[in-house]
Amino acid sequence: WQEPVTFEDIAVYLSRAEWDAIAVGQRDLYRSVMLDNYELLTSLGYPGPKPDVLYRMERGEEPWI
User: Fold this and answer.
1) Which stretches make up the KRAB domain (predicted)?
2) Structural domain boundaries of the chain?
3) Helices assigned H by DSSP within the chain
4) Rounded Cα–Cα distance for residues 50 and 41 (Å)
């Protein structure tokens, strides 16, 4: 039996310092990959709650933690 993959298994969280150090294009890529990963997981039946980092990105807030 194998445990299902969770969002936490594939998420990459950045600190504010890390976020501030990356270029705008990298920030856009980060947002895109995080949202795509969540969409892929939900299409495979991921039952978990939507992570707070995704809500923040959807509201236009910075995703660093």
Assistant:
1) 5-65
2) 7-59
3) 7-10, 16-21, 24-43, 52-58
4) 11
